[in-house]
Amino acid sequence: MDLSRPWAPIRSPLDMEVVRVLRRTTRPLTGRDVARLVRTGSQPAVNAVLRRLAEEGVVHADEAGNAYLYTLNREHLAVPALEQLADIRAELERRLRAVIAEWEIAPVHISIFGSAARGDGDTASDIDLFVVRPAGVSEDDPRWRAQLDELAKHVRAWTGNHAGLSEIAASAVRRLRRQQPPVVAELRRDAITLLGPTPDDLLGSRK
């Protein structure tokens, strides 16, 4: 570890992908195992990351015949910080749920969808939220609007990304169930429910 540059172990998104894979298990994994489990990255690229992380001390590399077996070095000073970074999306979900739980007007449903739910967004991507407004609440209700505005401000402050709010009235859910536009399939496939029924229960199960 280079103590003058303690951030050096992580140089690319693939580095974090490798850390995510290794932190989920204590079982030693080969480079091929890790390459199979990361979401992106070729086996040569994954092997290069594993070798460099082993040099940094973040990863243990033990010879096993013609291969190496890799495990995360959980005693390394940098690993708690890396694990915190790996858990950022879960922390975002926790904070959103906490804010929504305090709303004066509870939504019928609210979920994260799009790139934020899939995990393939970037700094230019919105944090997309699907919100179902309860019956009897006007779209222009100042209390309702204040809640959504506050939520959008929180998302911006916490992530640096804008919140993309897709809001519908509870009365429009039946139309979505009937028409099944592409967004319905996207919600059922990717959405992370923050409050209310799951997308399958709300919009109809897959056929």
Task: Write up this protein.
There is one protein chain. By secondary structure, the chain is an alpha+beta fold. The strands form two sheets. It has a four-stranded mixed sheet, sandwiched between helices. Strand 4 (127-133), helix 7 (142-159) and strand 5 (163-169) form a beta-alpha-beta unit. The chain is elongated and about 65 Å long. The chain folds into two domains: 13-85, Arc Repressor Mutant, subunit A, CATH 1.10.10; 87-203, Beta Polymerase, domain 2. It has ten helices and six strands.
- Name the CATH superfamily assignment of the largest domain: Beta Polymerase, domain 2
Strand elements, count: 6
Gyration radius from CA atoms, angstroms: 21 Å
Q: State the helical fraction.
A: 40-55%
Number of domains: 2
Q: Indicate the mean pLDDT.
A: 91
CATH architecture label of the largest domain: 2-Layer Sandwich
Based on CA inertia axes, which overall geometry fits?
elongated
Number of helices: 10
Structural class: alpha+beta
The main sheet comes to:
4 strands, mixed
CATH topology of the largest domain: Beta Polymerase, domain 2
Annotation keywords:
single chain, 207 residues, alpha+beta, Arc Repressor Mutant, subunit A, Beta Polymerase, domain 2, 2 domains, 4-stranded mixed beta sheet, two-stranded antiparallel ribbon, 10 helices
Briefly, what is this?
This protein is of the alpha+beta class and 207 residues long. It contains 10 helices and 6 strands; from the N terminus they run H-H-H-E-E-H-H-E-H-E-H-E-H-H-E-H.
